[in-house]
Task: structure prediction
Amino acid sequence: ARRYMQEEDFEHFIFSYHGVPERQIRKGDHTGKTCQFGSCCDRITPDNQLCYRAQCFETTRQLVAALGLQEGTYTTAFQSRLGRDPWIQPYTEDLVKRLPKEGKTKVLAFSPAFVSDCLETTIEVGEEYKELFEEHGGKHWQLVECLNASPIWVDLLEELIRS
Result:
């Protein structure tokens, strides 16, 4: 990401995670009352530490801190929904359409839940969302490659295996 951030002055950063149906999140809520699909994901607590949605928001917060991003310049969203049941939100597709209307025409996109590039990262986020973004007035869309593209990741895996 830093390489792309040195090359371009991005106006917004999207952290797009694979979506799941809301019912799956509710099933995992051992308290039966924690998940409200809102502010319950604002921080990790003992009650939500195993919640996928809360973990995604926490991952975004940690990446934002590491990259030094300013509040209001990024959004956590969810992709790849299927069927009619409601899936966790916000939806990446809706965000991609809205950003150019808000004057955010240069976006850097991440897929932090994926450790290797696949159809959902390279095609869905890298190509389909780029086309949708440009159709709605966006000018520059860049996908950050998954970890599999990094020698640091390969070295870490080797180290973990050997230890």
